[in-house]
Amino acid sequence: MSVLSVHDLAVETEHARLVDGVSFSVKARRTLGLVGESGSGKSVTCLSVLGLPPRGVRVTEGHILFDGDDLRAKTPAELNALRGREIGMILQDPMTSLNPLLTVGRQITEMFRYRDGMTSRKEREARAIELLRRVRIPAPESRLHSYPHQFSGGMRQRVAIAMNIACNPRLLIADEPTTALDVTVRLQILDLLREVQAERGTAIVLVTHDLHLVRRYCDDVAVMYAGRIVEQGPVGDVFARPRHPYTKGLLGAVPRLRGPQRRLTVIPGQPPLPGSIAQGCRFAPRCPGARADCMSAYPATRTIDTHRSVACFHPEPDERTAEALLMTATS
């Protein structure tokens, strides 16, 4: 059974639909990579799962099942009880989730008092030190009394992870958690998340633009374009044999880190703005293989084998691509 299962999710503003019929699921001990260009609806989808869509945005259709229970049917109080305890979220910039006016120790210990009812200050601090040590914060006893600005970006992200794993959540949503970090720290953070997952069986949704990270850390991938998922399946299969032209274009734009170099491909044009989406396939204006039927209707999502799906009238041939060799070589 999936820890999180999203079915036909629609998210709208007053004037436009931002997410349109999105469906995906993630099981315990597995990581789903959610990829696509900026503005494709990845972050809005994740915030909507938590019941925290941005101001002026609302979920209008679909089901969000967590352990089989529909989160849309829960009251704000019930959702608040789940957030932090059962479902955690790591943001791109930890400074947006850490209070700059409170010490790191105060923020962690207050969470234990609020979530677990832990009344002993000594016990709360001991638990906080244990957590900071778990995420490899050096000298945690002294850093407990430091403020967020006294930590590096990587250390702040470790603190954010510590706060999110404190209550052993069953689902962890990481919205581009390594974007602002250098390459070495980026890998350390994701290695840490993988260790936590192995120990606690956590299901993870990882939002990222970095396809190399998806290949290295994710089990499954869902590719979003203009508010819809156009292709999804196991990472190895999707990257080795991309069936949607958008997926193939994204892989072709990734530079090779090993082997012979080649000219990167370019996806012409820009994604459509919300509210300006024309009839037909949303990728058709940028697709080199678009045909007349692509302009008249949006393709239904079809299952192409047991674990793969694609929304395309004319999928790419089922054959290994040159980009597949790239992703395999860098995994």
UniProtKB/TrEMBL annotation:
<dbReference type="InterPro" id="IPR017871">
    <property type="entry name" value="ABC_transporter-like_CS"/>
</dbReference>
<dbReference type="GO" id="GO:0015833">
    <property type="term" value="P:peptide transport"/>
</dbReference>
<dbReference type="InterPro" id="IPR050388">
    <property type="entry name" value="ABC_Ni/Peptide_Import"/>
</dbReference>
<dbReference type="Pfam" id="PF08352">
    <property type="entry name" value="oligo_HPY"/>
</dbReference>
<keyword id="KW-0547">Nucleotide-binding</keyword>
<dbReference type="InterPro" id="IPR003439">
    <property type="entry name" value="ABC_transporter-like_ATP-bd"/>
</dbReference>
<dbReference type="Pfam" id="PF00005">
    <property type="entry name" value="ABC_tran"/>
</dbReference>
<dbReference type="InterPro" id="IPR003593">
    <property type="entry name" value="AAA+_ATPase"/>
</dbReference>
<keyword id="KW-0067">ATP-binding</keyword>
<protein>
    <submittedName>
        <fullName>Oligopeptide transport ATP-binding ABC transport protein</fullName>
    </submittedName>
</protein>
<dbReference type="GO" id="GO:0016887">
    <property type="term" value="F:ATP hydrolysis activity"/>
</dbReference>
<dbReference type="GO" id="GO:0005886">
    <property type="term" value="C:plasma membrane"/>
</dbReference>
<keyword id="KW-1003">Cell membrane</keyword>
<keyword id="KW-0813">Transport</keyword>
<keyword id="KW-0472">Membrane</keyword>
<keyword id="KW-0997">Cell inner membrane</keyword>
<dbReference type="InterPro" id="IPR027417">
    <property type="entry name" value="P-loop_NTPase"/>
</dbReference>
<dbReference type="GO" id="GO:0005524">
    <property type="term" value="F:ATP binding"/>
</dbReference>
<comment type="similarity">
    <text>Belongs to the ABC transporter superfamily.</text>
</comment>
<dbReference type="InterPro" id="IPR013563">
    <property type="entry name" value="Oligopep_ABC_C"/>
</dbReference>
<feature type="domain" description="ABC transporter">
    <location>
        <begin position="4"/>
        <end position="251"/>
    </location>
</feature>
<dbReference type="GO" id="GO:0055085">
    <property type="term" value="P:transmembrane transport"/>
</dbReference>
